[in-house]
Amino acid sequence: MAAPQHATPAPQPVQAVQPEAAAQPHHAASAQPRPVVPLSASEPAPRVPEAPSITGPFAITVTGSQAIVEQQTASYPIATVPALRDDAELQAASAPEPAGESFAQAAAFDPEPVRRSASQEQPGPASTPAPAAPSEPDEATELFGGGSGGPTDFDSLFAAESHGEPKKKRGKGCLIALIVLFAILGGIAAGGAWVYNTYSDKINEVMGWGPPKDYEPGQEKGEAFVTIKDGDTGQPISTALYQAGVTKTDSVFYDMLVDENLAVTFYPGVYKLKKQMTAEAALEALRDENNRMENTASVPEGGRIKTFLPAVADSLGMPLEELQAAVAKPADYGVQADSLEGWLFPAVYTFDPGSTAKDVIQKMVDRTRQSLKDAGVAAGDEERILTIASIVQREGHTADFDKVSRVIDNRLQPNNDETHGLLQMDSTAQYGYGLTHDGAVSSWPWKEVSTDQNPWNTYVHAGLPAGPIASPSDAAIKAAQNPADGPWFYFVTVNLDTGETVFSATYEEQQAAEKKYQQWCKDNPDGGCY
């Protein structure tokens, strides 16, 4: 607080007051004020001695004819209060002010002390202040660096100072800066999210993130049969291993061969392996002659005669021409159809030495008849069931076979007002156009495929196609014979990795499901979409 005003009305010179250790809150002035020295008109104005250095910002309060220096904080560097330099300054400082009025002005000084000349260092005797009695420093002084004029207790150290002009508020500027900062960070985050969503597969591959591409050792189970054809190299064998359930991903086996620079000779035949093997374990199994089955051949599920017959010839060491001639006459096997497509059951076969091409085909046809009988298919209805089963095999996943069968059956009903008898199955149009089942639909000349007038094109012709389009499994044949109950006319796989499929009763529902598929394709540009 400020010291009380003196009653003397005449102007008084201002004496520099030396700060002392405050013992009251708000840095109260010393209880022993300095004497006021009057000036006569003839006497020269004395110089005011330089104030001692104090710590941090402070305020000068002028009340009447006295000036009191008050320290505000104890956390700033020491500054030196400059002395008044001439008589005009002294007279201006000692001029009286109206009664009852006072002012306080916060002063900030250059941290560099003000140096004076030697003559200025000698103040007049009349203005020399009485020396202050030294005081013993208390614990607060020693702890917080207080001294003459410094804080000596916690109240004065942390008390808010009421003197001086308030500091400028910077809340609005800080808020704007924070908004700009968050906007920049948000933009960076959004950009990073877009890059990752767009190129996540590539990023994960380069950085080694994401799920592992190979199985862990010790996870082997069950049996798997892998056919290696004459001339097969690492890439097709890698795909065959994946399709048989041996390896976890399509490329892990081939990548291992390339990364380790392995030169391996593969021999044609059917190999008996286990499912869920590591790429390294699969290679060792293929190198083991004991795993190569003698006189064996395999037919893949959903395979076409045109595609798998050469592999059978290689496995058995039989001329391909003999097998092609054997399948050209369905009547030789009691089949009343123009082709044996769909009648050669998908399985692994072992033949006795000396078996002929006709023996090989007969065994496959007999296995199909056994599956038809087990499913309860009536005599004379075999070709129709095999045709439906072959479409189910090509279009659906095993868990959804019975639902796909229901979609086909619903579309074949005469009261079908959704598709008016058209199956509109891609697999049938593809087969009739002469395309293999390998590769994405995006590689097709779609306009030509969907408008071709061949009898398998179900986009053009209502009802079933001319015959089976592939070799169906036991599960597909059972589904064709016993479709699930449901109102569905449409279905679409919305996740090619998991095989998740959505079945719909109306075209509007189908369009909504197709949007899910399109979004998945957008999120997985290398997922094999069309």
Structural class: alpha+beta
Helix count from the secondary structure assignment: 16
- How is the largest sheet built, in terms of strand order? 3-2-5
What's the SSE pattern? Answer: EEEEHEHHHEHHEHEEHHEHHHHHHEEH
State the separation between the terminal residues, measured CA to CA: 85 Å
Residue share in helices?
Answer: 25-40%
What's the story with the biggest beta sheet?
A: 3 strands, antiparallel
Strand content: 5-15%
Number of strands: 12
What sort of overall outline do the alpha carbons produce when their principal axes are compared? flat
Cα-atom Rg, whole angstroms?
49 Å
Mean pLDDT: 76
Catalogue the unreliable spans.
1-42, 73-86, 99-129, 139-154
Report on the structure:
By secondary structure, the protein is of the alpha+beta class. Among the domains are: 221-293, Dna Ligase, domain 1, CATH 3.30.1490; 394-523, no CATH class. The protein has helices at residues 87-94, 139-144, 154-158, 171-207, 234-243, 252-259, 279-287, 305-316, 320-327, 357-375, 382-395, 401-412, 426-433, 446-451, 474-481, 507-523, and strands spanning 54-55, 58-63, 66-71, 78-79, 103-107, 221-228, 269-275, 292-293, 296-298, 348-350, 490-495, 500-504. The chain is flat and about 125 Å long. The relative contact order is 0.07. Mean pLDDT is 76; it is low at 1-42, 73-86, 99-129 and 139-154.
